[in-house]
Design brief:
This protein is an alpha/beta fold. It is built from five helices and seven strands, in the order αβαββββαβαβα. The strands form two sheets. Strands 2-1-5-6-7 form a five-stranded parallel sheet, with helices on both faces. Strands 3-4 form a two-stranded antiparallel sheet.
Length: 156
């Protein structure tokens, strides 16, 4: 399990996110995450074979079709499909495989970690970003992480 500093480092160093299963429906969790990331300066790449565009970005049918580098592969997929996506993330040279809240798969974790990908499981990218960088406190959630102290950038 990655600690807060490791998650902070992932979120600071990686800004191109392929969202597999991004929906075009505004009320779906994947749409909330995609919109939030765009609003916070991330480049999103929708991966959904059923649409041409979502959130103003060109959709791709699969990870292999993306013509440029991807930092984070964020999965909104059933847990049993995640090992296949882990292999695809490895194939395209992604740096991080992120399984959204409620998605748990040990096989995907092993594949990603064996290929030296950072791996996050059962966490929402939007919630973690807001928790670490200050967005949750605006709705009354006190994470005890945000303070007037300057954020320390973690380096190797």
């Amino acid at each position: 399990m990655l600690n807060t500093n490791a998650l902070r480092k992932i979120l600071l160093e990686n800004n191109t996110v392929a969202i597999v299963g991004l929906s075009d429906k505004w009320h779906r969790p994947s749409y909330f995450v995609g919109k939030y990331l765009v609003d916070h300066g991330y480049k999103i790449i929708p991966v959904n074979p059923n649409h041409e565009q979502i959130l103003g970005q060109q959709c791709y049918p699969d990870l292999a079709s993306i013509p440029h580098p991807v930092d984070i592969v964020d999965l909104f997929q059933r847990a049993d499909t995640t090992p296949d996506y882990a292999l695809q993330a490895i194939e395209i040279g992604a740096k991080v495989l992120w399984l959204q809240l409620g998605i748990i798969n040990q096989e995907a974790q092993k594949l990603a970690q064996d290929a030296n990908l950072k791996f996050v499981m059962n966490k929402c990218l939007k919630i973690e970003h807001a928790r670490i960088f200050g967005g949750l406190n605006f709705i009354g959630v006190d994470t005890k992480i945000i303070s007037s102290s300057r954020i320390k950038v973690i380096s190797n």
